[in-house]
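Feature request, filed as a ticket because there's no other form

It would be nice if the structure record came with a short human-readable summary line next to the tokens. Right now we just get the raw output. Example of a typical job, pasted below so the devs can see what we mean:
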Amino acid sequence: MNQQVMRIAKARRMSDYYELTKPKVVALIVFTAVVGMFLATPGMVPLDILFFGTLGIGLAAAGAAAINHVLDRRVDAQMQRTQHRPLPTGQLSEMEALSFAFLLAISSMLILVVWINPLTAILTFFTLIGYAVVYTVFLKRATPQNIVIGGAAGAAPPVLGWAAVTNTIDPNALLLFLIVFTWTPPHFWALAIARKDEYAKANIPMLPVTHGVEFTRLQILLYTILLVIVSVLPFLTRMSGLLYLFGALALGAGFLYYAISLKTSSRPDLPMKTFGYSITYLFALFSFLLVDHYLLPAP
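Raw output as currently delivered:
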């Protein structure tokens, strides 16, 4: 009986550590990085670079997420969306979470330096610091433009993936960065509208809290229009072909539908539906980039 209880307790702790990594967020980050790797070469990515690059970037993203849990533990306890995380509930201590985060981050740097290249390691390190420290500690509590400025860290993974293959910062990789950077505000502000009261309670100056929901809806629409324009750039620069163009326009039309609906309707379900579609949008857009790269090369 005692052994069974210990096994259950051990499994629970493993689950808590896993939750610290924000697995759904990390999965999207790693996916955009992997697409960056494949777009960096006309052929197959070398398997060692694919494996160690994905592992190193993924561990860095997971480490940054764990640090974010530690730094936001008091805010998380005040918000319904996050109050069941391992630190607010006491399932893990701050020292346990911080030790786990540093283990992930250090492992990431060692893997990238030894098996990939120093440039990718340096870029990944600054991305980690940008999200875990600059955004979480300073920007998040300082300005309603926090997610716009801090979005640079979340937009970096395609550049990291590209650098892992080529050991360079390529202009085409920066186009991928620009897409994710432009996508971030309408994606996150939709969630912020849905969780406006919680952010207000936690004294986080998200745009709906400081400037109101109507202003935020307008900004979501404007950024979505900009995103559709930016998403066409890979075709215009001949980085991608017609398959990607059709996919980007179709996905952009869907995003615009949600953004316009959000602007013109006060339906309470629309913010979260827009947020959900934005995740599907980014995953599908990068999937079109990948498929187009191999099946229908740019002219």
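Something like this underneath would help us a lot:
The chain has 15 helices and no strands.
Residues 1-9 have pLDDT under 50 and may be disordered.
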